[in-house]
Structure formats: structure tokens, C-alpha cells
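RESIDUES AND SHAPES:
===
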Amino acid sequence: TEGYSVSFNEFLTLVGNQKNHEPSVDNLIIAFQMFDKEETGKISEDHFKRIMCTKNGTRSEDLNEMLAEYRRIHMSSEPETPDDEKYIDYRKFVDMLQD
């Protein structure tokens, strides 16, 4: 709604506090959907990096490693996540986090 905003980190904190500090798959998807204004099921890597870099303690090395793992897994899956588009299918990303 207009006039209200919550950062991704604030949202994750609220969601995490609901269930032993570990958000469910559904709650993670909802968090990503907040940043997917066009409802495409994906967000750009740049946008994801900006969100994550605002989180205290998130090192760029950790973030790059996470993205490299995502690309490794999903460049070999069907349908592929095209490297030149540099986006994250957040459902696939959440699935990767759960493995």
C-alpha cells in the first residue's frame, strides 16, 4: 500500500522472528515477490546484490559465491537461466537454499 514501506532486511527479520529465525520457503518467496513489481518470478542480479549488500555482515565474497552456485546449478537445468540476462529466478534460488 502507498505510504508504507519495509526493507528486504526488515521483512526477513519480521518473518524470521515468526519461526525460530528461519523463514519458511513460502515466506522467502513472499519476500522476493515484494521486489518483483512486474510479477515475472525473477529479479535482476544487480537488484539482488543491492538488497543483500545493505544487510549487515553480508560479505561480497559470500554473495558472489552464492550467485556462482546458483548459476552452476541452473545453467544446467531446464529451462536454463540465461547468463546474459543476469537475473535470478527466485523460486529456484529459494529451492537451492533449501538443499
Observations:
- Residues 53 and 59 are 8 Å apart (CA to CA).
